[in-house]
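Lab notebook, bench 4. Still working through the backlog of constructs that have no structural model yet. Next entry is a single chain of 78 residues. Request: give me the structure tokens for it.
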Amino acid sequence: MAENSITCEIVESIAVLSENEKGYTKEINLVSWNGADPKYDIRNWHPGRERCGKGITLSEEEAHALMDALKEVFGDDE
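Model written out:
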């Protein structure tokens, strides 16, 4: 019987958004899940990135839409 394992490869580390007292980090990265095209990914990572928590993946178009929405909320500092 085939094992149902999920694989991920962090193609590009973009930013650490926060870190808690136990060393877990919330990060945004460009990640390839199961060999698929990379997507923008926001989730918590265990120290050393051995494991990760639930998160959200965004296509490039979705990431742009999120950025536009956040600019409306917080203003555009450019």
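Notes after review: The first strand starts at residue 8 and ends at 19. The chain has a mean pLDDT of 92. Flag for follow-up if needed.
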